[in-house]
Amino acid sequence: MGRFLLLLLAAAAGGSLLLNAGSSGGRSHTRGQQQSLVRQTLDDAVATVLDAAVDPATRRWRTALPLGRTFQVDGYRVDVEDYHLESSGTVAAFRLAAYRGGVGQRIESRYRIPNTGWPGPIWVDAPYAVSQVDAHATIDGGGRRIYFDATRFGAYRLASVLNLADLGTDFGAGFGGVRGTGAPFAVVADMDAVREAFGAPTPVELVGRALGAFSAQDTRLAGPATIADSRTYGGYPATTPGDARIVHVTGDLTIASSGRVEGNGLLLVEGNLTVLGRLDWTGLVLVRPRSQHVAVNWADGRVRLNGGLVVDQEAPPPGGHTDLTINRDITGQWNSSAGAIGETGPGTPGDAEFGGYGRAVGLPGLLYDHEHRFERATAEQRTIHFAERGVDRHERYTWFRRTLTDFAAAAPAERLYVRFKNPAGHGASLFHLVTRAGTYDGAVATGFGAHARPGDASASPSFLPADLDALVVDVQSLRLLTRLTDGQVPGSPFWPYGTSACPSRPMCIGFLDDRDGALAVQLVRDTDDRPVYEASVYWHTQAAGSTQFLEELAADDAWRSAIRGGAEYGALVQVGRQVTVTFADESVGAIANRLGFGQTAIEHVSSVVEHMDARSTGTARVGG
Amino acid sequence: MSSLLDHLTAIAAGTVVLLALVTLQMRDRVAAVEDAVSDVAQQQATSVADGLAQEFDNVLSEPMATAALGTYRCQLVRDAAGERTALVELPVFVRTVRGGAVRAATVRYQLRATGRTVTVGRTARPTYRLTREVDTGAGYGAAATVAESLVDFDVKFRGRASETFAGAPPLRFSQIAFQLVVAVTPPRARAGHVRVQQTNSARAVFAVRPPNLTTTL
């Protein structure tokens, strides 16, 4: 029996061996899936590297990757085989490898952060400019230029009294002999192209962003202001992004010989800037007067500017004026843009309460109200106070508070919001809105920023009519409003009369749904986004040959004669021996980061993928 | 006598068990031959597909190709019957020398009939040779054979909203999908009296999202 069992066991063992010897190896049926999984891991790893490689404070590549040689993604190890910068630090090149199962992939990628931040150490956007530069001053331009934007020179037809070619001598030549690496001088006809290349906003957009971001840590000084003591705003030089501050001076600023100002961020001066003492600043200095002549006087003081100086001066010739045209329908059911002719009753054009201009000229329905030459009618020039609780100084022109009241009576508990229609015709306007929920400041061109109604940057948060305390629109540039001239054919697609000219813009603008492209300050019903009120603000010029036209022509001639005769006009930039301007993108990084510009996307340059066999690493193949 | 009977019984039982195991073994050998044939097809399909996937992974976008090569040649051509892809032409990054620098080039894959057939199941199917040529700027070089025994080859370019089997890539070209079928000639193998019913073809299906087409931040 024992032998029987032994034989049985031997047979079984032999059969098993044969069975095993005949079996084949494992098969790889999921290689494609594994490749996809490795790729997904690498894609996520690339995103992780990009997140880690960019310094958020400066928006530049870090010189070393703070991830180590390996890191985990999706539970899998990723090797960082290489990381280095190329092209003067603008391109990050890195090589990553990941393995899953039996397959591995390596990706070598290059990404670029374009030159962002600011065009250069000095940017003058003025009709004309003159400089006085001491040869001992130091300008380190970081490879960037000193720009003069010739847009206003051309728009004002200054060639009749000044020679643009003289700018090279009057303004640029002085900077050519300074110490340091210098910065070439350039007169550009299209500063927008330069500005956009660097992701920089216009000066008025910069101001709008600054006003919108203005908070308790920032400082506002009523101008004219003189500083004779030492003040620090945010730390100098910058150490963290949070150091960037906004110092807003609402008129001239003089830093006396005993004064010292140091800081980081944006120094915004709405007038002349004179430094007799000391100014140490990292970031941007923006000088923005409303006068015909502005001086940046750094002749005798000590100035250390790590960043850029901007001069934004409008100084326009006389000609034209601001018109304000009001339309409303508190029901939000406009039969036409201005309501139907002949309608009567509250909230309709024919209503006696609002019949003013339209009724007076025998055209009820075209206009609710209209103020011709608004800046001449008001002491505040082109600052339109739509609402000021308890004051409402411009109510007789705007009908704003009454619209709020009428709307609240007609639709209790319904909410409204403010919207800037046609913001392209912004007039460099700044706005100030106060509701029970908050205070909102900014530039019409850029809107309400982070506070904006979802999907519409130009729309405010909603509010109950009774909760609105203030709305002020400060039109800073007549020239940047939409220009509408009597006797011309409207460009509006809603103009129903073909090539027939519009004899009177106020009436036409009241007639056209799109307000002929003019900036319109709207009150909009929250429930269905229907406007119930529109105040159109535009640059109105008279038809050639009219009395007003001839008056403006004479004023323009006088203005040109004065400039030709040597009257101070444009910007004067004085740079003394103790002035050092050092420009680098990093120097404007903190304020750019705070105000949200220069945040251009990271550009993918190229990627090369190599497939590897995990069992024989290093034998990668590209191209089959 | 009992000892003799004991031996005979053991021998008989052992023989029965051994025969049973040998029968099992023979059947397993049949399966093993099938597996071996299938594995060969599978390995060839995987190898060819891997190479193509890697190539397609390194496709250049039109701006990159234009900047690097001065031209953008990217197309698919179907065969006369419209049944399979006859030509794939793409701008890619390649290494022309093993371990050398990566450079931009245009690569062309062409599918040509070999004149032979292979039986897959009970159907005789023509086989095709896939060749690869590289143009780094001086015209296409010599063709290298990538696969010898394809019976099917389909490539399509996918955009975000559309795809194409022929012609230039669609708008927002972002993905290349392909499938190929490799068939190998089965050995005339017999195992015992059981004819081997081989699975002698293998299909590989890939979809590639080249980073140079898809990277957006």
Helix-strand layout with pairing:
The complex is a heterodimer of chains A (624) and B (217).
Chain A: H1 2-21, H2 31-53, E1 54-55, E2 60-61, E3 70-73, E4 76-86, E5 91-100, E6 103-112, E7 122-125, E8 129-133, E9 138-140, E10 146-149, H3 151-155, H4 167-176, E11 179-182, E12 185-188, H5 191-197, H6 203-213, E13 219-221, E14 225-227, E15 230-233, E16 245-249, E17 253-255, E18 260-269, E19 273-275, E20 278-287, E21 293-298, E22 302-312, E23 321-328, H7 356-360, E24 369-371, H8 374-377, E25 383-388, H9 395-398, H10 400-410, E26 416-421, E27 430-435, E28 438-443, E29 468-474, E30 483-485, H11 505-511, E31 519-525, E32 531-541, H12 547-564, E33 570-575, E34 579-582, H13 585-595, E35 603-613
Parallel strand pairs in A: 7-10, 7-22, 8-33, 9-11, 9-34, 10-12, 13-16, 14-17, 15-18, 16-18, 17-19, 18-20, 19-21, 20-22, 21-33, 22-34, 30-32
Antiparallel strand pairs in A: 1-2, 3-4, 4-5, 5-6, 6-35, 23-24, 23-32, 25-29, 26-31, 27-28, 27-29, 31-32
Chain B: H1 2-57, H2 62-69, E1 75-78, E2 85-95, E3 102-120, E4 123-135, E5 144-158, E6 163-164, E7 175-183, E8 190-191, E9 194-195, E10 201-208, H3 211-214
Antiparallel strand pairs in B: 1-2, 2-3, 3-4, 4-5, 5-6, 5-7, 7-10, 8-9
Walk me through what this model shows.
The complex is a heterodimer of chains A (624) and B (217). Chain A has 624 residues and is an alpha/beta fold. Helices cover 22% and strands 33% of the residues of chain A. In chain A, β3 and β4 (76-86) form a beta hairpin. Chain B contains three helices and ten strands; from the N terminus they run ααββββββββββα. In chain B, the strands form two sheets. In chain B, strands 1, 2, 3, 4, 5, 6, 7 and 10 form an eight-stranded antiparallel sheet that branches. In chain B, strands 8-9 form a two-stranded antiparallel ribbon. Chain B is elongated and about 95 Å long. The interface between A and B is large, with 46 and 56 residues.
